[in-house]
Amino acid sequence: MRHVLSAIVQNVPGVLAHISGMLASRGYNIDSLAVGETEDPNLSRMTFVVVGDDRVLEQVRKQLEKIVTVVRVDDISAQDHVERDMMLVKIHAPAGGKRSEVRELVEIFRGRIVDVGEEEVMIEISGRESKVEAFIDRMRAFGITELVRTGRIAMVRSKSAAPDSSSGPQLRDSSIRSYIRKESD
Amino acid sequence: MAPPKAATEKNKLINGADILVESLVRHGVDVLFAYPGGASMPLHQALTRFSDKIRTILPRHEQGGTFAAQGYARSTGRPGVCMATSGPGATNLVTGLADAKLDSVPIIAITGQVTTGAIGSDAFQETPIVEVCRGITKHHYLVTDVLDLPRVMKEAFHVATTGRPGPVLVDLPKDVQLEKYEADWDVPMNLPGYADPSGMRIRPEQVNQVLAAIKRAKRPLVYCGGGVISSNASEELREFVRITGIPVTMTLMGLGAFPARDPLSLDMLGMHGSVYANWAVRDCDLLLAFGVRFDDRVTGKLEAFAKHAKIVHIDIDASELNKNKAAHIPIAGDIKHALGELTRCVEPKADIAEWVEQVQQWKREHPFKYKQDFDGILQQHAIDVLSQITAEREAFVTVGVGQHQMWAAQFFKFQHPRRWLSSSGLGTMGFGLPSAMGVQAAHPDALVIDIDGDGSFQMNIQELATCYCENLPVKVLLLNNQHLGMVVQWEDRFMAGNRAHTYLGPIHHAEAHGRGDDIYATERYPDFVQIAKGYGCGAATVRRRGDLVEALREMIEYDGPFVLDVQTPYQEHVLPMIPSNHSVDDMIVE
């Protein structure tokens, strides 16, 4: 079982080392870990993808919560949520030749070409893990020269409006949401 | 530097070292164990300025300081404090901190650090001690700004002593120790992620669940541990048992939580626990696990442990629940509060008389035993006699790790909590003497006895100097079999008696190769009496059975620290024994 845990932690030196050390020393299997500041400069958010059964997940969660600088831990995957993984990738695509084919695929996957060199292009793409991986597969044929991913980040969706409610902003909100859902699938 | 503040309090500019020491005083610390060095000299200078309020004891090794702090903390319930310099001083604290973490002992460890500018440059005596200690402390700080110091100290004491207690490390660079600052003591803590201990209360529906389970049970058993002692819940436990009449077994950490001489006490359970406690666990239908963590030395094979029982597990640390053994009723809460609530509502158990009679019959038929007619002094015998002749003194007993530790747990009868100090989780040899020293510092008039083995004793034997020089009249009952007895026992049981570096005498002796022809090692080494006397302590050696009581009395009455070297055989085994990862059915009794 794959779970996405999100931890709010105090933004103090060593907290990442503490958490990754705890996970390693207790032998928990972490697929990905992403760290960044939040809207509050005193707090950071860490997103973990943990593989294991419910018992492992419960332990990981409690052990995380026990760390004094960890403020809160949420199991995001237990709720309706949005998950993203961002990637920068350099593809071997000399001018002319296959470059237009690459451009076409980038468009289909809703990525962007962010840098163009003589022999290579750099592509930015984000989405669910499966989408990013499908894109990587497509790109292999051209030749991947360099690749970097952020690791998963995730956020719980806001409560949806009731079906009969038809106020403007909510409508717009839910239409955006359905767009995002489609895009990510 | 902060601008001067309005003189609301009588603040003045003092340096970081003074702030640290004054904050110790403000938190009620009256003694600490500190070994100086380059990076902690300002702290020691500050300690001399506060010497009317705080006693500084100089151990002879930083590890001794950590265990002395533990002795202070375990025997009083108040945080123990130790201090060391940077680098090797700091790394010498590591074992004591790991030990305190596993046994949940509140310790404040302070280390000097190289100056902030030098950190990371591989400076002389620099170690990243916070990095080293992350996994073995409850919390840790590297203080790089003197302004943070009052808050950090406040948080350190709060974290160390609340919830599940544990060690907190404060690493203080030398320049921060010397920086001047007008201390603001009234600072708020910044611990948004630290659970408020007042929230650790059992909820009424949980109380009802447990009460219902107790009501239904026909063969209930209390399995209690160190949590009952750390939360000072011994009185509540006794009251709970007085009302319900449910028998009690204790872990190594829990000894003293319930009086050993009470008929409902089933003594210790687990690998070297009593037959009757382990059988009671096997047959019980309700296991009331209070302040315990289902350690492997208690459970053996997990699937077979209490397999017919409904398990109620109450612990202040939520991560202990369902960690090793799934509980039917897991409750995260303070056991003192929980037992108080349960005791208010629980009814006497009239329907368990048969069960109680059963376990008491087992207790009569299978007591802890040793050869009564042995012509000499067996370790168990020495402990048994010591327990009897000190019964009125409410002595404090510390131990090292190994056979003597298990025998002390089996044969010394503890009636009160916090009288028994054992490195239980980490199993650190060398714990006995320094921890006894810490107990003595906290209780100057008490009888404090380190029951030790010759292996463990030599791991911190240098602390005899501290005992002598600091007037800490600790008594050492040295059960000297010239071997690492517990490992010898395993060699005998599981490795065909092949001696693998378990003899503590010269390697040319026959015993070093398992070819000794006596039950005693023939040539004794080292001469502990001479060593003890060299340190200024009283000392004697005893071998004849008839001399034991007199020798013990001489030790107890001696005015000062004393080592009684008891010559014992080395082929005694601690029994009963459930081999590692086996079940009660595999218990060895002969």
Could you list some keywords that capture this structure?
heterodimer; A: 185 residues; alpha+beta; Alpha-Beta Plaits; 2 domains; five-stranded antiparallel β-sheet; four-stranded antiparallel β-sheet; 5 helices; 36% strand; elongated; disordered C terminus; B: 590 residues; alpha/beta; Rossmann fold; 3 domains; six-stranded parallel β-sheet; 23 helices
What's the short story on this structure?
Chain A has 185 residues and is of the alpha+beta class. Helix content of chain A is 34%, strand content 36%.
Distance between the termini of chain B: 71 Å
First and last CA, distance of chain A: 20 Å
Please report the total strand number of chain B as a whole number: 20
Helix content of chain A: 25-40%
Shape-level CATH architecture of the largest domain in chain B: 3-Layer(aba) Sandwich
Structural class of chain A: alpha+beta
Physical arrangement of strands within the biggest beta sheet of chain B: 3-2-4-5-7-6
Helices of chain B, by number, come to 23
Considering the protein shown, what is the CATH homologous superfamily of the largest domain in chain A?
A: ACT-like. Chain A, domain 2
Instruction: Quote the average pLDDT of chain B.
Output: 96
The outline of chain A comes out as elongated
Q: Strand count, sense and closure of the main sheet of chain B?
A: 6 strands, parallel
- Relative helix content of chain B: 25-40%
Measured by residues with Cβ under 8 Å of the partner chain's Cβ, the largest interface is: A-B, 22 and 22 residues
The CATH topology of the largest domain in chain A corresponds to Alpha-Beta Plaits
**CATH level 1 class label of the largest domain in chain B:** Alpha Beta
Please give the radius of gyration of chain B in angstroms.
Answer: 25 Å
Structural domain count of chain B:
3
